[in-house]
Amino acid sequence: MSTKHTQAAERFIRNTQQAQWHNETLWMVREKRDRLSQSLPEWEELRELASQIKRHTLSHLDEYLVRFVEQAEANGVVVHWAKDAQEHNEIVHALLTEHKAKKLVKSKSMLTEECHLNAYLIERGIDVVESDLGERILQLKNQLPSHIVLPAIHLKRQEVGKLFEEKLHTEKDNSDPTYLTHAARLHLRNEFLTADAAMTGANFGVAETGDVVVCTNEGNADMGTSFPKLHIVSMGIEKLVPNYQALSVFTRLLARSATGQPSTTYTSHYRTPRKGCEMHIVLVDNGRSTSLGNEEHNQTLKCIRCGACMNTCPVYRRSGGYSYTYFIPGPIGINLGMLRSPGQYFDNVSACSLCYSCNNVCPAKVDLADQIYRWRQQLDALGKADPTKKVMSFGLKFLFARPKLYNMALKFAPIINHLPRFLLYNGLNGWGKGREMPSFAKKSFTQIFLNHDFIKIHGINKIKKS
Amino acid sequence: MKVGLFIPCYVNAVYPEVGVATYKLLCSLGIDTDYPLAQTCCGQPMANAGFERDTLSLARHFEALFAQYDYVVAPSASCVAFVKENYPRILKPSAHLCQTSGKIYDICEFLHDIIKVNKLPGKFPHKVSVHNSCHGVRELHLSSASELNIPRFSKLKNLLSLVEGIEVFEPQKVDECCGFGGMFSIEEPAMSVCMGQDKLRNHIATGAEYITGADSSCLMHLQGIVKREKLPIQFIHIVQILSAGL
């Protein structure tokens, strides 16, 4: 009984020190989030409001999209519609070709990860430069993000030092964070100055004004979009909020939930192209409208990608982002993966103890754990249920549906206590890997009750047989 | 007031003393308590593993069995939460309006909210660390969840404070999951055991002699690790402390 997640998680915690460090580092982020959220008396109201705004917007998405596009076009922005990742990548590539752009600087965008844009462009000769520090580190290391907000959280500074030594020619064995950040800054500064085009993601799109709002801590989106003549925004259609009042709810929630900051250092609003420049928005569906029609799971679309569910998830913290088979890990990744392709990403559904902590931290009140529970119910129909669990479940049902048999089993269960150890503790017994089995009581509660032991011992005469 | 006692399957088989303590405590408070014998399991083990459909017949049986009682009381927060949260939906296909959901209580919740117990006869002169179980905290609201910005409370600590001589502690990461999670514990044993070990470290660091809580399932998992690793801490269900001296 094991999934790809089970196996990858087991490998991850074999390096005990690294795993504990990962766990505690992310827990610190969770604690920062707690402190910040508890400093706002209206926090829970904000979460409820955010949830309702998203519900409203998603259930009127057609209207808001039309409004957003009309506004953006009136602002001089060119809007493109992409039904899937392929179309998105083609549109972006065509724009770059049209502008004879050879170098593209990007700020962080999970949507472009989803579309595998970088690989697509690099294959076609474009020099793609990630400008978020974490993303840049990973790009130099040829790795993918292991967290959606803290993409390189699995790396220690010593590893970054080594990487920079090799790629950016920094001093040998110097892994001082300030020194390394400064080196990255100089390196990126040159990339910003020489880029032909800039790309950003979008945290929010404001329907009333056509604005695109991008939140960063490093100002890299602003640096990237300040020099080149072309700015392309890659944006999922679920990113819309109706207006600025609605936006203000999310800007209060986002950074507090994500990193425990009152706000991101930069909250940049892009409305019109700079003089003599072009701004394009690529609105991407890539399965979102299908998800919207999925009544059991469409609440997932409320997600604002803050990563709080990862930081609190006891399984994510202990197994790392790479233990999941979908590019977004943690509770939200389990759900998004299943929405994308259940047959492909079902391995992640085991990575949840149903502790419900994710539900409580989510700023948009996505019922992440409930949805994971519901996905589990669908595994059997997809032919992906674990055969052992299926047999166990059937066996339990058989037993529990027969009270007489159940009572008989209760009576004879203690025999198991006396089985030889090799029968109880072997490769088949997942429980026994790190734990002793519970021992069955000599007399079950039912037997004690039937024997009227209460009367004999305590003089209580309230026993009634039914 | 007539109470139907529900003793979950694993409590019945492994921790009958928890059932006995619950029964004695209810009787000592003068509550008319009945134990319907044809009960088995609420169905949570199968449902959490992805086989909720296997639980419809159990839910129907459960409903019928406890139909005559004003309250259903059980010494297991997780099982109670399962019935409360899921039975209405599970029973939908049988066109039956679920009654149990609205009248099932964990024993602590029942004592605290319905009976409003304000004194207990027993003494327990020991240090205990309270195990805030996920379903107890986040589904039954036995205490305030650490993630939420709501006034802090703990029904478990309130009840324990009525017991003479007890010293009550709570671990760091006060309501982080211990890693049991039903079939999660055998499907993801590495994660489950690691979470358990971390939880135990935090409990042991309080200096407590006992870990106590409203969910024997978490305690069973933690006890399995303690036995394997021979760690210096004991386990007791909260109702055994509350019924001390009876």
Measured between the Cα atoms of the first and last residue of chain B, the distance is: 22 Å
Residue-averaged pLDDT of chain B: 96
Rg of chain A over CA atoms, rounded to whole Å, is 27 Å
Given the C-alpha coordinates, what overall shape of chain A results? globular
Strand content of chain A: 5-15%
Biggest sheet descriptor of chain A: 6 strands, parallel
Number of strands of chain B: 8
What summary fits the major beta sheet of chain B? 4 strands, parallel
Helix vs. strand class of chain B: alpha/beta
Global morphology of chain B: globular
Helix content of chain B: 40-55%
Strand order of the largest sheet of chain A: 1-10-7-4-2-3
Task: Reconstruct the topology from this structure.
The complex is a heterodimer of chains A (466) and B (246).
Chain A: H1 4-14, H2 16-38, H3 43-59, H4 61-74, E1 78-82, H5 85-98, E2 103-106, H6 110-114, H7 117-123, E3 127-130, H8 133-141, H9 157-167, H10 177-194, E4 197-200, E5 204-206, E6 211-216, H11 220-226, E7 230-236, E8 240-241, H12 244-258, E9 266-270, E10 278-284, H13 288-292, H14 308-312, H15 314-319, H16 330-340, H17 342-345, H18 357-361, H19 368-379, H20 387-400, H21 403-412, H22 421-424, H23 445-450, H24 453-458
Parallel strand pairs in A: 1-10, 2-3, 2-4, 4-7, 5-8, 7-10
Antiparallel strand pairs in A: 5-6, 6-9
Chain B: E1 2-5, H1 9-14, H2 16-28, E2 32-34, H3 44-48, H4 56-65, E3 71-74, H5 77-90, E4 104-106, H6 107-115, E5 127-131, H7 134-138, H8 155-160, E6 167-169, H9 184-187, H10 189-204, E7 210-213, H11 216-229, E8 234-237, H12 238-242
Parallel strand pairs in B: 1-2, 1-3, 3-4, 5-6, 5-7, 7-8
Supply database-style keywords.
heterodimer, A: 466 residues, alpha/beta, six-stranded parallel sheet, four-stranded mixed sheet, 24 helices, 10 strands, B: 246 residues, four-stranded parallel sheet, 12 helices, 8 strands, globular
